[in-house]
Automatic annotation (TrEMBL):
PROSITE patterns in alphabetical order: PEPTIDASE_C56_PFPI
Protein name: Protease I
CDD domains the UniProt entry points to: GATase1_PfpI_1
The enzyme's E.C. designation: 3.2.-.-
Family in the record: Belongs to the peptidase C56 family.
Alphabetized SUPFAM superfamilies for the sequence: Class I glutamine amidotransferase-like
Organism phylogeny: Bacteria, Bacillati, Actinomycetota, Actinomycetes, Pseudonocardiales
Gene Ontology biological process terms in this record: proteolysis
Assigned keywords, A-Z: Glycosidase, Hydrolase, Protease
Highest taxon of source: Bacteria
Organism, scientific name: Crossiella cryophila
Length: 187
């Protein structure tokens, strides 16, 4: 069965990890979650509250990582998902994450990221000359990484499928699953 990799860590947005994890498993893909270490991760919940200038953050679900980044052989996976939350802020500096993400982009494999997940490929220069959605406050990071920020519920740029945040899940996963069905069908 084809395998999909999710790279994440503590303070990732609960919905942005668990929705693609469950949706891709429902579709029939094996899904591994990789993190800085193989431990139980603490996710968070970001919500929008009237009167606040930005989103709020509360403790979310905990979930076990299947393996550490250093253990990942990206050649064994057909696609990559990079959820948002605060995790990408520190993951983008991890040499193993950079190695993993670069493999997927250079191999032209499907990559889905949303929200702050754009920070990871931007930090490695992989958004250069690409169109991408992200959380709007990440637009300067997308631009600094050479990409074009698009404020839309889903942006398809070749094998890269992106969205702004968890409210865009339906459009984001619809496009990503369609791409996976075409590129890495379940036997």
């Amino acid at each position: 069965m084809p395998k999909v990799l999710i790279v994440t860590g503590d303070a990732a947005e609960s919905l942005e990890v668990l929705y693609p994890y469950q949706r891709l498993r429902e579709e029939g893909y094996d899904v591994d979650i990789a993190a800085p270490s193989a431990k139980r991760l603490q996710f968070v919940v970001h919500d929008f509250v009237d009167g606040h200038d930005t989103y709020t953050e509360k403790p979310g679900y905990t979930w076990p990582a299947d393996l550490a980044f250093r253990e990942v052989d990206p050649a064994g996976y057909v696609a990559l998902v990079i959820p948002g939350g605060r995790a990408p802020e520190y993951l983008r500096n991890d040499e193993h994450v950079q190695r993993i993400v670069t493999h997927f982009f250079e191999a032209g494999k499907p990559v889905a990221h949303l929200c702050h997940g754009a920070l990871v490929p931007a930090a490695v220069g992989l958004l250069k000359d690409r169109r991408t959605a992200a959380y709007p406050e990440c637009a300067p990071d997308v631009l600094a990484g050479g990409g074009e920020f698009v404020d839309d519920e889903v942006v398809v740029d070749g094998p890269m499928i992106t969205a702004r945040a968890w409210p865009d899940h339906p459009a984001w996963m619809r496009e990503f699953v369609a791409l996976l069905r075409a590129r890495a069908p379940i036997a």
